[in-house]
Amino acid sequence: MATNPRVPSDPNNQKRPELVPAPVVRKKWPGAGPGVAFALIVAAALIAAVVYYMPRAPKKSPPPAGAQAPIQPVSNELQFSNLHIALGPAGSEMTLDGSVMNAGNRPILGSTVELTFLGHDGKVVGNVTKPLQGMMVQNGLLRSDPIGTHPIPPNHTRPFRITVDNVPSGWNHQMPNVTVLTVAAD
Questions:
Q1: What is the dihedral of CA 120, 182, 112, 167, to 10 degrees?
Q2: Rg for the chain (alpha carbons), in Å?
Q3: What are φ and ψ of residue 43, in 5° steps?
């Protein structure tokens, strides 16, 4: 058969050289062994932990707490009366005096108001934002008395003053509109 050929034997019965495969020599890598496999497993676990704990989206900053944001005015919490203005000698300064009543149910520690000045044509020529300066009558004279030091209790009235150093030019010298912007309460 052709699949099992027979090689004729040597008549002299001499052995012929045979091809012998060379022995396989395995190169040993320095440090290779069970430590390498363990190091690869540890590295893969560290990478997986880093990917798992990384943030998925940017974090939003929390809104300011109630103590950080100014308390917003409640409708008619502050009521103004007896308003009158006095001009400075140069005409660029104005003082607004009056009384403020705490119509709310908590002591008022301070307030910021906006004065809107109108021109002769009735259009707004400027806005000025100022804090209310508390006043008190002492020996028949008005003296400064900060509202934060002596809060206005509910249902009480207190004199106040607002001084504007640079009145907008073109002002019609009429009472400016007073708008409460912020109220600090206890």
A1: -20
A2: 46
A3: -60, -40
Query: What would the pLDDT profile of 64-95 be if each residue is shown by its tens digit?
Result: 665 555 555 565 788 888 998 988 887 778 89
Considering the domain boundaries, does residue 126 fall inside one? yes
Domain containing residue 89: CATH number:
2.60.40
What is the residue range of 129's domain? 78-185
Using H for helix, E for strand and C for coil, what is the string for 57-84? CCCCCCCCCCCCCCCCCCCCCEEEEEEE
How many domains is the chain built from? 1
User: Residue 98: inside a domain, yes or no?
Assistant: yes
Domain assignment of residue 150, yes or no:
yes
Structure tokens at 6: 């027979």
Residue pair 170/109 in contact by the 8 Å Cβ criterion: no
Residues listed for the chain: 186
- The answer to whether residue 63 sits within a structural domain is no
pLDDT beyond 70 at 129? yes
Task: Report the alpha-carbon distance of residue 59 to residue 151 in Å, rounded.
Answer: 40
For the full predicted model, state whether its pTM sits above 0.85: no
